[in-house]
Structure formats: C-alpha cells, structure tokens
Amino acid sequence: MKNYYCLSFKKPYLFLALFFLTAIFFSNDANSQSQSTSPSAPSIDGKINASEWDGATVFTKFHIISPKSDLQYYDSTIVLIKTTKDAIYFGFRYWPKGKVISKSLRRDRSTAEENEFFIMLDMENKGTNGYFFAFSFLNNQRDAIVYNIRNSSSEWDWVWQCKSTVYREAKEDSTGYIETEIKIPVDKMQNKNQKQIGVDVQMFAYKPDGSYYTYSLMPDAEISSLKSVYKLDLKQPFDERANVNFSATPYIVANKYNDSTYKSEFGGEFTLNYNKHRLKSTVNTDESTLEADPFQFAFYNRSIFLSEKRPFLSKDLDIYGSQINLFYTRAIEKIDYGFNYTYRGDNLKIGSIYIKEGDDRAGNKKDFFITRPRYSTREFNAGGMFIYRNDKTNDYLEKIISFDGFYRIPNSRFRVLGQVAHSINTQGGTTTDGTGFTAYSYYEFDNSGGPYYDASYSRFDDKFKASTSFNSQVGSPNNFEELSFSGGHNFNYNRKYFSQMNFSGSVYRASQLSDGFNYQKKYSLSSNYTVFGPMNFSQYVEYNMPNDFDSDGNRIERKNFLQEYDLSYVFGNNAVSAGYYFGTYFGDYVKNPYMSANFFFFEKVAISGSVNYIDVFNSHTTVLNTRLDYKVFDKFFVRSFFQRDTRSKQSLWNTLFQYEFFAGSNIYFVLNLSGELLQRTTRYFKIGYEFNF
Q1: Is there a cis peptide before residue 67, judged by omega within 30 degrees of 0?
Q2: In angstroms, rounded to a whole number, what is the distance separating the alpha carbons of residues 80 and 149?
Q3: Rounded mean pLDDT of 1-6?
Q4: What predicted TM-score, i.e. pTM, was given to this entire model?
Q5: What's the confidence (pLDDT) of residue 139?
C-alpha cells in the first residue's frame, strides 16, 4: 500500500517548508547548469558592453527567408556570438522600424503575432538534431529539442538567461533601439562537437506598413529548422562537464479538501549523467494539476489530446515518439516510482522507461515498461519499440512490438515513412494478438511558399490493443482503417495586402474493418489569407458522409455539410478573433459561434478569454475559458483562470501564486474551486527545486 505522510500542517509542515527553502537559498548552485567562470564571459544584464564582447563573431548581413526575397529591407541588426568552455553567448543590437509586440508572460507560450527571435543550435554539427531557443523583448522564453531536422518537442526545458533593454520604441520618423544578451550553458548538453557547431538566428519583425517577415543568417534557412545553419568554428572546445554529475529535484506537496485535514506528501526526481548516458528516477511523482486542462468540445467523437506536464516523461518524448502514437503518456496515471534511461549517441538514440503505477483498493499495482532504440542519419531513420504492461487489477497483460522507418530523399522536400505494430494481450487466461500499420508520405510545407501534400493509409485489426495508444481522428482503438490525402499551395509575397495565402483540399475516410461502417467519409476545402498585416481570414468547407443508425437500428448514410469562417485582428499588443462553424450534422443543424480575445497592459498584466457556444441535438452548451497572468515582479507571478461548461454544469476556478527560480524549479500555492457552484475547495502547496552535485 502507498504510504502517505499526514501532518497537522501547522507546525510540522511549516518547519519542513522553511527547512527546504533554507536549503534552496544556501545551495551552491543557483541553476541546473553551471555558471561560467571565464573572465571574458559577458554579464547578462541586457546592456552590451564592448569590452565584454571583445573577440565575438559579428554578423551584420542577413537574408529574408519568409517571404523569400533577395531584397535587403530588414531592420538594421547586429548579432554577436561568443563561446566559452561551458556556454555560448548571443548579443543583439536591434533597430526596429515597425511595431514590436511582446505580451506573453508564460514560459514556453507565445502568440503568433509576437516579435520573437529564434536561436537554432546544432551541437552535433550533423544537421539533424539540435535545440531551439526563442525569446521576446519581455524576456519570455521558449525552448525545444529538435530532431529529424525540423520536428520538435516543446516539453523539453533548459535553464538559460535572457535579458533585454528597450531604449526607445519605433516611431513614424525614427527607429527604435533594443539590446539583448543571451547565455545558453552547454556543458550538460550531450554529444557536442568539439571543433565546430551549427548556429542560426532567425528574427521575426514588422515593417512600418504592418506586414511582417523573417530574416536569418543563412539564405536557404527555414523557420525553426536545422536544414541550413552557419558553421561556427570553436576557438576553444566546450567542456564536457565532469563525466559524472548528479541532480536532484525533491518536492513537498500539501493539500486540503473542504473540511478534511491537511495532508502532505514527499517525492522527487533524481538524475545521473555519465557522458551520453542519462538515468532519471522518480518517487511519488506529483500528479496534481497546477494548471487545469482546459474544457473542450469535439465533433465526430474525436478524442481530445492532453499534453504531458510531468518532466519525468515530457523531456524525452523526441526519443519515444513514433508515427503511430503508441506511447500516449497521459494514459499513465499515478506513478509510485519509475526509472527513465536514455542514451544519445551520434546516430543511435535509446530510451527505456519502467514505471510502477499506483495501487487500487485491494493493493494491486500496475507495471509498465517501454524501450525504444532508434538509429538516425540525415536521410534515414530506423527504430523499434517494445511495450509491456501488467495490470493486476484487471488481470490484463499487454505486450507490443513495433518497427518504424523514415527516408528523406536527398536535396528534396519529399519524405516517406512507415510503421508496423503487433500486440499480444492476455486477459482472464485468454490470449489474443493483433496487428496495425501505417504508411505515410509527404512533401514538406515551405513557409516561404510552394506546394505541399500529405498522404497516409493506416489499418488496425480488431484484435490489436494498446492501452497507451492515441488516435485523434477515430473514436475506436482498433478494427478500423484510415485513408487520407491532402495537398495545397502556400503563397508568400512581399506586399502589404494579401501577403500570405494558403489554399488546400483533402479527402479522408475512416471506417470499421469488420463491416465497412464509415466513421467519416469527408471531402474538404480550406483557405487562409493575411488580408493585411494585423488581419487574417480563414475559410473551411466540408462535405462528410458518415454512417449512422436510424430509430429502428438500420444503418443509414448521413450527409453533413459544414462550413467555418474565422477572422482575427491584432491591434497593438492585443488581439481579437471570432468565427462561426455551422451546417447540417447527423440529421440536425449545428450552430457553433465562438470568439476569443487577449489583452496586455503595463507590461505586467495579460488577460485572455474565449466563449464557445454549441447548439446541436436540442442541447445548448456554452464553454467559457478566461485567464489572468500578472507579473508582480521578476520571477513572481499570480495566475488565475476560470472555466465553465454549461452542459456538464461544471465550473473550475484555479488561482495560483508562483515563484520561478528557473525552469523546473518553483514554489506554488494553489486554490482550486470546482463544482457547479464552486462548492468544492482544494488548497494546494508545492515546493520543487533542482539541486546539482
């Protein structure tokens, strides 16, 4: 049975919390990456000092990559790059001629209209795997791990520094001026090239007429891609920070429900690194949702994907991901303890996870194990996967083996990949086995303009079963086949009106294998326009012929004709959008107007909200989501969000106070009110901090 440590919370818990905080503030390491001790390293204060940046590589000439242009109308910019033995530094001197939009106050979140600068790092210097860093001039940060040139996993977090100073804003008769300094520690990055690395800087900017563009160091670079990067020779090799290092992230969680007594639970995550090997472990993994999953509504019985928020699982999804989503981590619930081993070599990547899931009332537990090796080159990937799950509660044993491959035609945007999976399931002494596979090819989308397409075929027999799999389109885990083809053309022009236009069409069919019952049989057309800088308009038309049953149980074919129109407008740091989805739907008529807005005030307060009204099958549903983010001072935030679903008659008001030491290390105090009348109260307190040894 799971042990809970129950305290009166008043004195014992306070004592433990104070002890924990004391340990944090007197710990030797302030970050999970080491601080550079080089005397020539710039100090990150957002003010570029010439002496600190002496010896840096300087860039003043750039290339506009979206829309593609040989003209040099980009903003005057100077980029400085400097390396030490344990970090890489970037300095930016930026004279914008157009508006600068910065308004996000949540790490790893931004809006499409924000000015952000991207940094792409290829530490292996192979043009395949690397890292993505983005920042706004409010010092908001995003980061991701990049694999297969342009795929990324934003759940990955790194500790890095960013500081901007806005000296003046652009006006009609004069440019603005901003200085930014960046430090990215690299000593704990695995598999670094010691002589040369790949680097690109991609900058999103507005022209005075409100249209926007992206410019880069390289003429054939692509946004958020490692396809083309500048080859930076290292003046001194990077340190491989001690062959062995250890980090620990213990946490304390306490909660109280309505009139219950306070309960406290202890747990943590621990990481051991040795060269290219990493072993992570977790104990009593915290499952409490600090920020609740948003209320959502889906048509055609589609499953709703929920992102992974537990660092123990989220930071290595690039290794475990595959075309068939066999490892949907949110299917794993309460974790008692677990281990996650990864190896990241030049070409070979390996991941293995073992998890002991929480027990039921009878004391039964679940065992879960996955291992995935993958061999990657620039043009070719091959991988395998084995999953084992033993659910003693339901007397269920599951084994899955899978193989997948990927081929990129050299010097082309054409890609081909496929995957096959076989399951062996035993329940109540009866064993069944089933097979599923998918084949997929595509011509890669180009932000600078050009054609693209996707084509796929998937088939899963009625005996296939994978308890951690996920399919966002078909409301069935097996006994189906899918056929999909979509294609279109993206246009990107250097002009004020209709600078970007995208037209596409698709054919999609999903049906039961056993009797040919059509879940969907769809034909669709869509278009998207940037009318002018701040205004976008999109349109979607769908004709769908799914099967259904009449009142007598006879199979019939429905004729659904649905349309959607959406308009968005950006003004200053604010944005509003509204749309209408409507049409015939399974013998009824759906009406689904919706709108959203986000506003930003005083560089400290962000307010956003959305209203989604659905009228179908004599049911009137309103889904309301609102959010407030308030930056009280640097690193301390108050966040509050309210949600209500009138169909389920459920409401949630979630308010949290957060102090962020750095990525992954925070103090939270959360107050949750839930229920139809917000009658259920939860008070929740968490401290988590990463120590390094």
Answers
A1: yes
A2: 24
A3: 31
A4: 0.76
A5: 86
